[in-house]
Design goal:
This protein is mostly helical. It has a domain of 114 residues. The protein is 52% helix and 0% strand. The chain is built from 5 helices and no strands. The termini are far apart.
Length: 164
Amino acid sequence: MATLPTFFRRTEAPANPVMAARPVGARTERDTERDPHMLRALPNDDILFYCKKIDNSRLVREADPQGRGACWSAIAGACVLLVLLTSAFFPTVATTLAGYKLEALRTEERQLLAERRNLELQEAELLSPARLDRLAKDNNLVTPSSRQVVHLDAKGDATVAMVK
């Protein structure tokens, strides 16, 4: 509003002093004889814009006594909203994580069952009678003859069974 009175007041000097000396509606010889190479006047060519430098480096912002409370209120509101959203989405997230864990346990169970089957197959191969007979022949472990078998009597000499 402070610039409004200066808007209606014309204090700028005209750009051409010759045009200022003559009346507004009067034409001269110069106007009728135009140079063919001269450009026509641009619109608003007579308007001058002045740019004033503003230095606010020495200004100090005045403290807002209510701003601090409003800031803490906004922080508290955001925390309450965060707690509400977390409590609302917690069951869904927990169910999803439990599903992932259950599927991982099922995968681990399938792997362990496959490993158990492989181990049982290897054990059956190692304990097969044909393999045991082949190992006995390779290591000269033959079935003892009837003359080589010694039966221990419980009534007999007890010192035979005791190792000192």
